[in-house]
Amino acid sequence: MNQKIKKVLLLGSGALKIGQAGEFDYSGAQALKALKEEGIQSVLINPNIATVQTSQGVADKVYFQPVWADFVNRVIEKERPDGILLSFGGQTALNCGIELYQKGILEKYDVEVLGTPIQTVIDTEDRDLFVKRLDEINVKTIRSHACDNVEDVRVAASELGFPVILRAAYALGGLGSGFCDNEEELLVQAEEAFSFSPQVLVEKSLKGWKEIEYEVVRDRYDNCITVCNMENIDPLGIHTGESIVVAPSQTLSNSEYHKLRSLSIRIIKHLGIIGECNVQYALDPQSEDYRVIEVNARLSRSSALASKATGYPLAFVAAKLGLGYGLFELNNSVTKSTSAFFEPALDYVVVKVPRWDLTKFHGVKRELSSSMKSVGEVMAIGRTFEEAIQKGLRMIGQGMHGFVANHEIKIEDIATALREPTDMRVFVVSEALNKGYSIEQIHQLTKIDRWFLQKFKHIVGIGQRLKEFSYLSLFLGSMEKTELLECLETPEFIQLLQEAKIYGFSDFQIARALGLEASMTMEKAGLLIRSWRKELSIMPFVNQIDTLAAEYPAQTNYLYLTYL
Q1: β partners of residue 245
Q2: Could you tell me the domains of the chain?
Q3: Predicted confidence band at 483 (pLDDT cuts at 50, 70, 90)?
């Protein structure tokens, strides 16, 4: 560890807004925890009081000031920190750090940038420099031109040929970005993009390719690991923050997975990143052709997801690496037993589902594109993709109970709704499958991988098979409980009920599919299914729970309430 570092300034993410949510609070709080463990005095600049990192005792000193160069300059002048951490406050912190460097403020007060060198940050943020650096190691990037005015954008689009995508450089959440199919759309999008950034990137569109991400960690000794890889269900064209994301990737071949993994390690080593970074790829679904979309030399929302999905504390480890530690010198603070130089292995599936609140904004367009509109996300874990996705969809606050057995949504034209994605797209897919659309038809309209569509169809199939037993609801009032249970104790029904639970059906979903909601309240219907399950001994991990209850008798009630 660098023994000269006694006081460190950490830049937060500023006021929370769409595209910049609580994941940066998580990252910053973890970094402050790492500094405290090393006995290093921490100074935090973050104007948002509604965060964990600004709570009393997390940082030694907190300045509730905007994360702007002028305000940070005054704090540096007063506090005289030995080092500064830029990668834990999202794009706001990075942009501020670059400005501090370019104005000579960091050099003036002898403040060392900890972790990834500032020139590497600039190389990853400036598209021209980024492409040139990756060209040095023959890594493919999307064909693009960096432009400083609207006329340059027009010329670049003409050279590349439509369709193109415009991206505002140095912007978070895809602000100002969008796809353009003609010059009229191009000029409108260019005006918007330049309102967010002085540099606009014009790129050849790869709409329809898969979007894959790798979270990679490197120390100053050039040791490197990939912590997690993730796959967007939606193809390229929808911002990753708007897409349902699965970890680990489900549709990559072994060859594709290891090819992109080795590329990620080559990239992070060549750029000289120290700590954590996120590498995003576009992958041709018809071949192993790829393009690097971008490299985030900072913690991102994907990093927060990867940390919680794998149990690997990325932000905590990245902060320690910034202080000069090697991966081999650190233990995983979550597992307490494995080294930080150990790649996690997942024997389960993690799904991230975005949350929207578009109804709050009058006249807002519901269509999803490369600019982010979601206000949050939920994470669900399951043994199968079906279980995880159904859990996630129950938690997004749209009044849904899973992929099926929801209240009816009005869709004027299913084909159009599939082709032009909105915040309800996943439920449009459910409706299409229920209406008899084939997997191939949906794939052609959405470009969602057939593997995911097959899994969605599996959920719909279980729901339809449950409906075949809806006649049972007719006997609820006329039969005794013992007689009813005898009717239920058929191998076919028991197997179906067990299958439904394995693939993520809630008790209420099952009750609705069986038609019980017509004769009782939703709550009673769900409780009835739960009592049936217990009578039929369809309960998760019963043996394991019994074992745990014997070992921890004080926790018996909690264990049974949680798992049953």
Answers
A1: 232, 352
A2: 7-114 (3.40.50.20), 143-204 (3.30.1490.20), 210-346 (3.30.470.20), 352-464 (1.10.1030), 468-542 (no CATH)
A3: low
